[in-house]
Amino acid sequence: RAERGGPEPNGSMENVSVPSGELSVYNDSVDLYSLSLGNNTHSNYVHYFHGDLYIILPIIYSVICAVGLTGNMAVIYVILKAPKMKTVTNMFILNLAIADDLFTLVLPISIANHLLNYWPFGEVLCKVTLSIDFYNIFSSIYFLTVMSIDRYLVVWATVRSKRMPYRTYRAAKIISFCVWLLVILIVMPFTIFAGVDVNPYDGRKSCVLMLPDPENLWNKMSRIYTLILGFAIPVSTICILYTMMLYKLRNMRLNSNAKALDKAKKKVTIMVFIVLAVCLFCWTPFHLSTIVALTTDLENTPLVIGISYFITSLSYANSCLNPFLYAFLDDSFRKAFKKMMECRPA
């Protein structure tokens, strides 16, 4: 059971009772947005959640961490070591794997924070962890947007029977570097506001967003900022690109003089589309929860708390799913991985 309670600003904690079988947590707003992020603002009060979540969530996060770290490291290793894997699309996949690996590397810190129920790691690591947490929101969708643009250009060039001399591995490196810079700039406000807050009633430390006054207004602005830059703009761009791409592919079938896409290009396009679909499946509930939080005033019922943690786990899971998609959908990746894992005589 989850209850929103706690004292008034000048109140006392003496009369707060903990229901039997439940865990008391001095934390911050427990709406869908903050729980999905795993971090909050610094308005202190008490909420409760069932003790089962205290055990189940670290297990889920640990599995995501182990699988994601192993899978993405394998993707990075294969792309960097196998000569035939150095393609434009694989350069973007490489950077997507690096971003996912970066997130899974700091996930154990979030697990420790959850188990300890306080932040013992200091100010610097707080800023780093929250920055990477927010970076995870933007990086996947932005690299997939770039991959969608690349797929559209490939289809467009094929339909018009044109070459693409500017589409090189080196150009993909430069574009990837620009995406990293762009996302760092987008996340910079969250890095600035991240800090360690000390609960005035028991001295418990929390790694949260220390938003200025009026806090409620800044909180809404941060939600809208994340929704627009992390979802609305990139997803709208992707939808427009794929609509135009499907339109061109349809016209190719109708036009007997058009040159059809070859088998390899079709496979890559399908793979990018499926990776994108899985990303949207994992992240759309998170952004929908932001809309819900902006338009309604939800009570912290058991159902809301459970949905919030489910959204968290689903968004985190995206960081470990992509390697499996590459293994199933990309023959060249699967063959390169098997070849590199073969035992070689000394």
TrEMBL record:
InterPro entries: GPCR_Rhodpsn, GPCR_Rhodpsn_7TM, Neuropept_B/W_rcpt. Gene3D superfamilies: Rhodopsin 7-helix transmembrane proteins (1.20.1070.10). It is found in: Cell membrane. Pfam families: 7tm_1. It is a multi-pass membrane protein. Residues 71-326 form the G-protein coupled receptors family 1 profile domain. SMART domains: 7TM_GPCR_Srsx. GO terms for molecular function: neuropeptide binding; neuropeptide receptor activity. Its main location: membrane. One of its GO terms (cellular component) is plasma membrane. Signal peptide: none annotated. The chain crosses the membrane at residues 53-80, 92-112, 132-153, 174-196, 224-247, 268-286, 306-329. Keywords: Cell membrane, Disulfide bond, G-protein coupled receptor, Glycoprotein, Membrane, Receptor, Transducer, Transmembrane, Transmembrane helix. Belongs to the G-protein coupled receptor 1 family. This is Neuropeptides B and W receptor 1. It comes from Cyprinodon variegatus (Sheepshead minnow).
